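README: folding subset

This subset contains proteins for which both the sequence and a predicted structure token string are available. Records are stored as plain text. Below is the entry for Xanthine dehydrogenase family protein subunit M (337 residues), shown exactly as it appears on disk.
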Amino acid sequence: MKEFSYTRPDSAEAAVAAVAQDPDAVYLAGGTNLVDHLKLGITTPGSLVDVSRLALGDVEPTPDGGLRIGATARNSDLAAHPYVRRHFSLLARALLAGASGQIRNVATTAGNLLQRTRCGYFQDPDARCNKRRPGAGCAAQEGWTRYHAVLGTSEHCLAAHPSDMAVALAALDAVVVVQGREGERRVPLTHFHRLPDDRPDLETVLEHGELVTAVEVPPLPYADRSAYRKVRDRASYAFALVSVAAALDVRDGRVAGVRLALGGVGTVPWRASVAEEALVGGPATEEAYREALLAELAQASPREDNAFKIPMARSTAVSVLRQLTQAPPPAGRRDQP
Ligand code: SF4
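--- output ---
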């Protein structure tokens, strides 16, 4: 392993200054992904700036009924928070579907968003990988692609985004709060991750030195009718083949509102906006759900190994929407079909 320096600034401002001035510096928080990469030689920073003990770990309701999640809030603490469990159960379920209990105890909110793909070629320093080394080529193009993406791919990369939490946050219209040398900015989560295009190594819109300090989630009036479902090869500690985050508002038999995001199938957490647009105002029927998912997935570019993800994503999403349609009406509402 390459030698590196280690510092632990006592403020976010000092951390930003330390990383911004050193092109070879990276942030360290939970380290559940980064330390693996250091050992494998995938990442070779000259300096680690530890932000894990900054006062950025609070999880708080906001006055409008939303949620503010500190960047270093641990995944297990966030999933267990009573307000999250009660008002954003979709997010709690996505967190509990990810990793293992031990990893969730250490992994942070920002680290979860920034975790890197588990493409086997990316994790093999001897394989060609544009994400690891721009211009090197992509071994997955002629390789084994069972776990790769079918949406948002390019000829340069088809690695799937691995996060469950980010899929739920995409459905919830979350906003990422970022601090840089020039001040703070807010980025909608659906614009935070970049499609690979011809630069798969550029994974987010973050500039070097910018630090994620929080994630804000606006209130969702029909969050009590939401679900996260994950399909995977093992019952636990496995990445998604397909996952679905959904919330649905049905009134008088029609879709009054819907949030839908897919995991395991996209190079980024995939907000299914084509399906959402097709659904809103239409009948809350299985046939309409199937048509909407067909429209969403028409843009997919499958390989032989991962073509199964298209019918799997469609049937999983339709099943989740059907389940939400049939759920008992929220307390005080009697207008469900
Ligand atoms: Fe690298 Fe992406 Fe190709 Fe995997 S799919 S080898 S991450 S460029």
